[in-house]
């Protein structure tokens, strides 16, 4: 009996620790080319070495380091060589390498996410990944051809040096845990048709479509990570969704067209004080996501149909959205 109970306990523990994934499609095979440029860059022994590095990686030099803003590559090379000789940069470099020690898993998540995106949209790109440490010069450059990552921006809360121009409530999302979602949301946005109209609800729905698609191509990433909320913020919005919804309806915010007013609910803010001190920023985006989720469930529309729909009123009306706490 004790042996049987032990087996039951082991099975229970395994099932509880296994990551829960949402239902999704099987990804197409995708293999991303990865260049760890920080290694080559920091092995440079002279500005001439860096000048050769810049010529060998001209796209990185142009798009990430903005080499076209310098009269000559030698000027940028001298600047970069001075940077890697700075004693402080070694700390930044080592912390970046530590933060990216499991980068292979990030790449795998990106490959699976792009593979699922290709199921829905076969023309989805397969960009090359390049990583580097540039003294907090640039965080990300994303296109159909390139994913360039400034590793030093994504060290996390324990970084010795942090970018000064980014508020803490945004900087909390600059981690390797959030990296795949940030990249794939940008890449997948090209397949989302923009809603017709200037109402806040139109933009809410568009953001909602973006998060809905992201949740489909990253089914094993927690939804709070997709939108960049903390666990507490994620729990709070669902516990108070009835209050949030009542504020939008009673104050007639859904059809607000004033840009400044819309930004209060859609833009980056630590909190939406118009609703409550504990209401996190970008609450309109979250609400749009819930409306799109409800629309998908009510109508059975495919991912492609939802992304192509430009009538935001249709999505809203047919969603019959109600807060989960109602």
Q: How would you portray this structure in words?
A:
It is a single chain. The protein contains 17 helices and four strands. The protein is mainly alpha-helical. The protein has a four-stranded mixed beta sheet. It starts with a helix and ends in a 7-residue tail after the last helix.
Give the helices and strands, then pairings:
Blueprint: H1 2-17, E1 34-36, H2 37-42, H3 47-56, H4 58-63, H5 73-85, H6 87-99, H7 103-120, E2 128-132, E3 140-142, E4 146-150, H8 168-171, H9 176-188, H10 200-217, H11 223-227, H12 231-239, H13 241-250, H14 259-266, H15 283-299, H16 303-308, H17 312-319
Parallel strand pairs: 1-2, 2-4
Antiparallel strand pairs: 3-4
Helix pairs in contact: 3-5, 7-9, 9-10, 10-15, 10-17, 15-17
């Amino acid at each position: 009996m004790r042996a049987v109970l032990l087996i039951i306990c082991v099975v229970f523990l395994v099932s509880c620790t296994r990551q829960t994934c949402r239902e999704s499609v099987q990804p197409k095979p995708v293999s991303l080319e990865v260049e760890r440029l920080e290694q080559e860059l920091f092995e440079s022994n002279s500005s001439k070495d860096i000048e050769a590095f810049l010529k060998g990686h001209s796209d990185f030099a142009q798009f990430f380091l903005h080499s076209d803003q310098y009269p000559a590559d030698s000027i940028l090379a001298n600047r970069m060589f001075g940077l890697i000789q700075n004693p402080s940069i070694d700390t930044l470099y080592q912390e970046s390498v530590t933060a990216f020690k499991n980068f292979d898993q990030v790449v795998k998540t990106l490959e699976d996410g792009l593979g699922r995106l290709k199921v829905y949209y076969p023309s989805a790109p397969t960009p090359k990944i390049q990583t580097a440490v540039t003294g907090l010069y640039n965080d990300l450059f994303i296109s159909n051809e390139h994913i360039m990552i400034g590793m030093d921006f994504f060290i996390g809360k324990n970084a010795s040096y942090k970018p000064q121009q980014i508020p803490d409530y945004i900087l909390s999302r600059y981690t390797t845990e959030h990296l795949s979602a940030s990249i794939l949301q940008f890449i997948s946005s090209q397949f989302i048709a923009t809603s017709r109209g200037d109402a806040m609800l139109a933009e809410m729905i568009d953001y909602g479509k973006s998060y809905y698609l992201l949740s489909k191509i990253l089914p094993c990433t927690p939804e709070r990570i997709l939108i960049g909320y903390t666990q507490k913020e994620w729990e709070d919005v669902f516990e108070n969704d009835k209050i949030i919804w009542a504020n939008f309806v009673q104050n007639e915010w859904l059809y607000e067209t004033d840009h400044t007013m819309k930004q209060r609910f859609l833009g980056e803010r630590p909190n939406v004080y118009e609703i409550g001190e504990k209401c996190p920023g970008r609450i309109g985006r979250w609400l749009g996501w819930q409306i799109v989720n409800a629309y998908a469930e009510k109508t059975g529309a495919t991912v492609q149909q939802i992304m192509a729909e430009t009538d935001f009123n249709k999505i809203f009306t047919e969603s019959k959205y109600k807060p989960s706490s109602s």
